[in-house]
Amino acid sequence: MRKILTGTVASSKMDKTLRVEIQRRYRHPLYGKTVRGRTVCHVHDEKNEAQEGDTVEIIESRPRSKTKRWDLIRIVEKKQD
């Protein structure tokens, strides 16, 4: 089963590649404080359709390069201008 995640496009300056940030919140194991964290994924976007600020859905895939291991499924929401 391949993972499906939802995140925000942080950068779309590369050709056919997006940098997607997935925000998460968790409790610190020792101090118990709620901490915000993020995971950065490099995503393959064949048609260069997503832009910076869009909310996208991505799926795990085979490695396409040293860092790129995700594919774009769809754009959930376009950025409001």
From TrEMBL:
SUPFAM superfamilies documented for this protein: Nucleic acid-binding proteins
**Which keywords are on file for this protein?**
Ribonucleoprotein, Ribosomal protein, RNA-binding, rRNA-binding
- Keyword Thylakoid present in the record's keywords: the answer is no
GO process terms (BP): translation
InterPro entries attached here? NA-bd_OB-fold (IPR012340), Ribosomal_uS17 (IPR000266), Ribosomal_uS17_bact/chlr (IPR019984)
Is Ligase a UniProt keyword of this protein?
no
Q: Which GO terms describe its cellular component?
A: cytosolic small ribosomal subunit
List the GO molecular function terms.
rRNA binding; structural constituent of ribosome
Q: How does it assemble?
A: Part of the 30S ribosomal subunit.
Q: Record's family? A: Belongs to the universal ribosomal protein uS17 family.
Q: What is the role of the protein in this entry?
A: One of the primary rRNA binding proteins, it binds specifically to the 5'-end of 16S ribosomal RNA.
The identity of this protein, by name, is Small ribosomal subunit protein uS17
